[in-house]
């Protein structure tokens, strides 16, 4: 079965796809984002909280912060039961976040355990030309089994990335990327209470396969925040009144309009640097371009569970392609029984006549209608009021009155004050 097709592509026009119940857990059960405790000491600065990720420790050697990156094949879990053969760094894709302070001297030892050569480009950082990491142009390629040393002084604070500049189409399509965050030299400058970051990535992973197709240019079917798909993406958590920063980097092949409910934020930075206060603009959606970063900041002044997602609707879906026939309004009475007779050992469910929300309804059918091996449902996730019907690039900002500073634990679902929930009437 090809995930880019439903059984509806047959003459009967029936869509047959099931939800994998192991992945259809609520976002409140998603793995917690690694918080401040896992980050290197930053002398009073708020450390980065990388969604479903971590920061890379360093060793201080004669005043130089020394980091070690290992480029290697990794098995990345996008959701429970959905594991993909990626390439990444230090056992994960994306690799760990590098955090330094403006003015630091850094040394990064990159060991190549890939089956081919590689390099690392420090996207947005200002450094000597020979440290820029473009294979064949500014340095020799790093052969498999060898280690390359990059050393430079970090000149400006901001939000940056790292990724290969060698066989880039394949290596980035396999997940090789990471965040590089430079904190201001003055700890009180640009202070926020919580500082979140994640990278956007997309893949073409055919049902039943384990490895992304690096030759795909348009027809992707896995859309992720830090290589997690909803509901396995960690929520963002904030105490009411805290100032929050979210840094989003885009290494996909299309732009992503990232929309946050419940607040009006300002765009305060890009991978080119900080936006002066006089030039910052208010938004509720910011478009993150290909190869770019956007930094947004806001005061979390409204308690609740607020959606954070890409506003391209297909990017908040799971395993479904663009070859699906339009069955809206097509009468399908009796089709299920006819198909069942043709394939008595299979389970089918016609849908699409009145909409696609039935995709989530199949979650209740459990394993009686299993998906193909190693794939994810088109829509999933349960909230406090029922099915969320989401997937891909979607998570929740959870703002609460009673949180303690530095508490990143998931507080569960929001308890709405009486009289503040929309209700139905006859």
List keywords for this structure.
five-stranded mixed β-sheet, eight-stranded mixed β-sheet, 426 residues, 3 helices, mainly beta
For the biggest sheet, the summary is: 8 strands, mixed
Q: What distance separates the N and C termini?
A: 43 Å
The gross shape turns out to be: globular
Unreliable spans are: 1-39
Radius of gyration: 23 Å
**What amount of the residues lies in strands?**
25-35%
Series of secondary-structure elements, N-terminal to C-terminal: EEEEEEEEEHEEEEEEEEEEEEHHEEE
User: Mean pLDDT, as a whole number?
Assistant: 85
Derived structural class: mainly beta
User: How many helical elements?
Assistant: 3
Give the fraction of residues assigned to helices: under 10%
**Total number of beta strands:** 24
If you had to describe this structure to a student in words, what would you say it looks like?
This protein has helices at residues 168-173, 335-342, 358-361, and strands at 48-50, 59-61, 64-79, 82-89, 98-101, 105-112, 121-123, 147-153, 158-163, 178-183, 194-203, 222-225, 236-239, 243-250, 256-260, 265-270, 273-274, 282-283, 285-288, 293-299, 304-310, 380-383, 386-390, 394-400. Strands 1, 11, 12, 14, 16, 17, 18 and 20 form an eight-stranded mixed beta sheet that branches. The model is unreliable at 1-39 (pLDDT under 50). The protein is built from three helices and 24 strands. It starts with 47 loop residues before the first strand and ends in a 26-residue tail after the last strand.
